[in-house]
Amino acid sequence: MSEKIDLNQEKLEMFYEQFGSKNLRLQSEMAKDHGKKSLDLYYKSIDFLYKTITTIGIIAGFGFTGLNYVRSYLLFFIGEALFFSAIAVGIWAIQKIYLDERKNFNSFYSQIKTHFKEWYVLFKPILDKAVKNDLEREDMQKLQNKEKELLSILTDSPEVEKDRKEILPIIIWIIFYLFITGAAFLFSSFIFYKL
What we know:
The protein is mostly helical. The protein has one domain. It is 85% helix and 2% strand. It has 4 helices and 2 strands. The chain has helices at 9-65, 73-131, 137-154, 158-189; strands spanning 4-5, 135-136. The protein has a two-stranded antiparallel ribbon. Helix 2 packs antiparallel against helix 3.
């Protein structure tokens, strides 16, 4: 049999404040902070992609203004095609990021919602025991273990972190490669004859 914990009214209020009210506030603040930081990073990355795509689009448009001065139409159209490919990859990447992030947030919300349901199912009988002055140390251990679960939920799974760390830099490098290669072809089209 587990050791009982004697709670008077003052200790009961402290118990509820520490494991009830305070815990709910802490969970809420942690979830809010995590979501805000994650969104901030993605918005900055997506903004960078938008700016890159816009820059490529402007350069591609300026290329057509100099069509009368092109010496090699083959190089010119290869360069423009690479620019438009970079734009298409960028638009696809932004959409993929939004869809993946939506899945991540839905999954995260589902995990948090499940955690709170399980936590409440665990907390309610323990609170009732505390009110009846029948609380046991084992009950406190159960609550502490449930709190530890929340911390593991709030940290990203390795698959999500791997996806965030790998896909965005790869996409950015692909866009830069297409942009630089396209620029080389485009500028070469104004210099070289019939290549």
